[in-house]
């Protein structure tokens, strides 16, 4: 790590720390969502960038985490940490049980399988309204209480969510740099050769799928405590598609890129809505533009620009 | 002499009614170099696929270290020391040369998902071991100059060496080389020949499939496959004198 | 569980099934011809139906002409997408995932466009054969549904003839199996790919036009039809457009039987669970050939 990089990081950290105080509350709220989406998107990014797997089922685990937190705190009066744990356990178990058969599929079949899973979950969230409250949802989810410090404002929750997000990014980075990360990239580049080198492809895919579900569930629980109210509209197939877009736009193999993707998915629709009803069309077009013109995502494209810039400018750092 | 490292007995297979292998029987003694030659389509690659576990044979048995391989998966066979290379080197294109070899070392180490996620000291230790072993292998195979290059940028000859280095880094007992000379120039084939001899001297048993007669001279015993059947066995000199082999190879 | 109820479910199942089949055949045709998974296949249905509605109600065209116009619009949009986006990305050797994401983006754009330009309301088309119904053993089936089934079967047979008898169809098959080999025999692979999208757009639009008199068309129809069409295509073996016909029928029937057997609210759950199970147990699909798995 060069001194220059460290300087950039420190500057970034300072900006991050003061942001909730200098931007309007509305923005702070969006930034919280960006953090939540970063957590959810990390899992998808690991699967996409390092395993070559398109996972369109993340809304399932996001929903499970959210409903678990909602149910445990509101219906059963348990402390919030229980909600987080219950959501995580249920999500990971489901991911393991369903993952094993589904992950034997490859390519488009797998994508379709995960999409079908998301559709099934969405329908069940709607049908089982005795558990989820259906479209009326579950309200009154308490704000998180951190050792007596109540996180009842977006500016406060912002720090908590982003610390969790940074921790998740560190964990993802650990995985990528580890022995497992080596095996994942090998599997992505040539599954034939990976198998020939005794890599258990099936077990690896399942494990990463379970980790992805964990991240999804965590994001869902964070969401529940932020929004105070959860209902089925937040956990549809559209949401799964949004989550997939995060690593795609940011750059699937880059972990900081997930943040960029999350920013895009959170802010762009909001910013565009200022332009009136046409904003959804513009969002779709923006997405198309990114996919067509920047196949490595925004981070990849900026990375290329940066190296070209650095080489021309005073390239000595 | 102890039991053979690999023993094929009456192995047979067909694809959609078309018979590809018929009653193939031969041994690979420990420490030896055995060769398989035959024209295209004679079943050599199918045989490799069967031995390494990509295909389950319709007939016959394959025994490794005395035990039938039956349902063992590709990965299990690899862990037991049965490793193969491919006719077209399957390198990990987006990874560097060093990382490619590191993948070959992953089977000698163990980490759990949790350890890797949390980057425990144990996980870090295993990674260090992988890196050390891989660097040693790169040194040995003279790949150190290329170690940080993406594998996609390598020439055919370099890829072949990389694939072998990667396979050897995992400490195999039996190495199956599938047409290792394909895509290589004369000099590279010569180097390859030296490598095979050297690896064998260090204790790796080798089963070699090749159409290159010159390369085949490293093998002590050569079996000739023709339309799925072994029609001749012996050292290279005997094979080249064998009337059936000459008949089959006339014009090839 | 009376006979008439089962018969009713069969009628509904076959009717829906043919619609899914048409969307699925288009999806399959596009995949077969270009290896692109078209996530906006359902939007072709919406485009076709909406164009027909507009031609009929705003510009006063006669119904058959409006239908032709609608079908043509699907074909044209398909061609446009291939020329404007797919070709560019193919030249840059984009990954298969990128194409999928492209079509997802296009689907989002299109459904948002429909919402913006047309609004939230659903629109209907006049049913073919009038408002009449056929009643068999207390089970009701509209004349339009009968027309739909007939046209659907006709389209399936026409597609089969197209692929096996016409020069263009054979060229498309050749180009998809081996692009380089096809090019050396003089087949213009790029144009073949455009035709593929034209075909997909046409089939999708047709499906949309035919289903609108029954359930109406709105900006949300696209996603639903894409999912079902995808399921139909996969069940049929993805590279076999005629398999999508079988897949679509299967899906439609499973759904209808689930409605009467379990409950209408679970119909999507049942349909998608069956899809997952079939994909796992029969990776080649119901009709597909072994060896060509998805991706």
Summary?
The complex is a heterotrimer of chains A (about 325), B (about 250) and C (about 300). Chain B is α/β, with parallel strands linked by helices.
Describe the structure.
The complex is a heterotrimer of chains A (317), B (252) and C (295). Chain A is an all-alpha fold. Chain A has 14 helices and 4 strands. The N and C termini of chain A lie close together (11 Å). Chain B has 10 helices and 10 strands. Chain B starts with 5 loop residues before the first strand and ends with a helix. The model of chain B has no long low-confidence stretch (mean pLDDT 89). The chains are: A mainly alpha (317), B alpha/beta (252), C mainly alpha (295). Chain A binds chain C through residues 48, 52, 54, 101-102, 104-113, 115-117, 119-120, 123-124, 126-127, 237-238, 241, 244-245, 248, 277-278, 280-281, 283-285, 287-288, 290-292, 295, and chain C through 37, 85, 88-89, 92, 94-98, 100-102, 104-110, 112-113, 115-116, 223, 227, 230-231, 234, 238, 265-266, 268-269, 272-273, 275-276, 279-280, 283, 293-295.
Strands, helices and their partners?
The complex is a heterotrimer of chains A (317), B (252) and C (295).
Chain A: H1 3-22, H2 25-51, H3 58-75, H4 80-102, H5 107-127, H6 129-132, E1 138-139, E2 145-146, E3 149-150, H7 154-177, H8 179-189, H9 191-196, H10 201-227, E4 229-230, H11 237-250, H12 255-273, H13 279-293, H14 297-312
Antiparallel strand pairs in A: 1-4, 2-3
Chain B: E1 6-15, E2 18-28, E3 33-37, H1 44-52, E4 59-64, E5 67-68, H2 74-79, E6 82-84, H3 97-105, H4 113-118, H5 121-140, H6 156-169, E7 174-178, H7 186-201, E8 205-209, H8 213-216, E9 221-226, E10 229-234, H9 236-241, H10 243-249
Parallel strand pairs in B: 3-8, 3-9, 6-7, 7-8
Antiparallel strand pairs in B: 1-2, 1-4, 4-5, 9-10
Helix pairs in contact in B: 3-5, 3-6, 5-6
Chain C: H1 3-34, H2 41-57, H3 63-91, H4 96-118, E1 133-136, E2 139-142, H5 143-165, H6 167-177, H7 179-184, H8 189-215, H9 221-235, H10 241-261, H11 267-281
Antiparallel strand pairs in C: 1-2
Helix pairs in contact in C: 1-5, 1-8, 1-9, 1-10, 2-3, 2-4, 2-8, 2-9, 3-8, 5-6, 5-8, 6-8, 9-10, 10-11
Q: Which structural traits does this protein have?
A:
heterotrimer, A: 317 residues, mainly alpha, two-stranded antiparallel sheet, two-stranded antiparallel ribbon, 14 helices, 3% strand, disordered C terminus, C: 295 residues, 11 helices, 2 strands
